[in-house]
Amino acid sequence: MIRYANESRFVQAVDCIVFGFDGETLKILLIQRGFEPEKGKWSLMGGFVKPNESLEQASTRILKQLTGLDGVYLEQMHTFGDPSRDPMERTISTAYFALIDIHKYEQQLNNDYHPEWFSVKRMPKLIFDQQEMVEMAQRSIRYKAALHPILFELLPKRFTLPQLQILYESVYNTTIDKRNFSKRVLATGLLIKQVEKDKSSSKRGAYYYHLNMQKYYANFQSFLNFIPNPTNLISQ
Amino acid sequence: MIRYANESRFVQAVDCIVFGFDGETLKILLIQRGFEPEKGKWSLMGGFVKPNESLEQASTRILKQLTGLDGVYLEQMHTFGDPSRDPMERTISTAYFALIDIHKYEQQLNNDYHPEWFSVKRMPKLIFDQQEMVEMAQRSIRYKAALHPILFELLPKRFTLPQLQILYESVYNTTIDKRNFSKRVLATGLLIKQVEKDKSSSKRGAYYYHLNMQKYYANFQSFLNFIPNPTNLISQ
DNA sequence: CCAAAAGTGTTCCGTTTACACCCATGT
DNA sequence: ACATGGGTGTAAACGGAACACTTTTGG
Hints:
2 copies of one chain form a homodimer.
Chain A: E1 9-21, E2 26-32, E3 42-43, E4 45-48, H1 55-67, E5 73-80, E6 91-99, H2 102-106, E7 116-119, H3 130-147, E8 158-160, H4 161-172, H5 178-187, E9 191-198, E10 206-211, H6 213-218, H7 230-234
Parallel strand pairs in A: 1-6
Antiparallel strand pairs in A: 1-2, 1-4, 2-3, 2-7, 5-6, 8-10, 9-10
Chain A binds a DNA duplex (27 and 27 nucleotides) through helix 5.
Protein name (chains A, B): NUDIX domain-containing protein
Organism (chains A, B): Mucilaginibacter agri
Domain Nudix hydrolase (chains A, B): 9-165
């Protein structure tokens, strides 16, 4: 193959910030790194890009390896290329964030990498610049979720309005009036009410809802306002 | 240096989509590529990342080389890593978009690369996947400018309300009521009225304004609404 | 029967929209 | 004096925010 003369070549990595929601707080999935440097330390799920795969393919492959999950919401966030970010050798890393239904994942715990969920508020120190990646990922999902319905990716197929509200409240570390919240959410037409109720957290029970997938995909780019004054909350 | 064994290494590039505004339409700056492959074809301003510079430093350096400009608004957009995007050799490119005052630039035309401005509506074919980069960059600035005051970066230090409105109208390919536009813009407190007028486009003259830089930086993250129904316009 | 969570409606206020006329001035 | 572009105000509609009581039912 003809090649560019005199240019440097670097190792290319991808790192995935995997978010989940357990019904109370936002969590991220970490593994103990399997190789040097920093072997055994907690780290994001990452890996190197192979010669014949795109960055998207690499991140999808790594996510599948480590969680067993396919078809996950995955979005490229930012590429980190500081020359000294990896002490072993110059490595450029493209960070993706992923949003998964934590319960789907829990059925998959049979893997070699022993990933664990950590609350974003109580996380171990991470290697390299991964702390910065996680902070940026949190800002990214706060920003994006203020405008687009991505947080549904964190919920199971059927969910209740109180669950959805707790999710938004925990992502933005705020409280929302439930009357206004349900009005805003239902006004989008994104939700389809089911006849069954979830009785696990109250005697009366809360109706289950499904996402209207048609509208979800069709209006994904529209601006939402489930959250009052989002810009006051995004930068936290 | 200790290195990762068995991993592939790739050439890392940066490409800059440089936007300018000539008072009528949005333009981007292109050069004729100086080396093979595709030598002589129109292309974005790009270059390779050197061993001891970050991606930001590389893009800033390349922008400086090709336009002579420092202190330009520059934002990382997306990293393109398809294995076959560059036929010469696998190259991963991180694309940045830049917003510059086209008039500042015009004083700098004395350089070896002969860059030229093209209307985004009438552009030559670009090499590799750069067409896709430009389209994504247009979507990005439409998206970002619907919420944040980045378009001021395209204007000179002093500008008039009609100029600002034409800028927004051309970015979104729409028309806006001038009464409502000026109310919305002035309500942000971002503009400081000057005593002088611009008489170049009317007999009466239009007042010049300056940006209130304090507020500009302090409230940069706040959501604006200079444009009615932005999401209908972003995806064009 | 009571505690605990779910569900629902109204009023008020601020914001956005639609819309039209007068102003300044160079020719 | 008139053509050209610049500047401004108001009323109506809409959307967002604040706010409290009733319902259900397992224990």
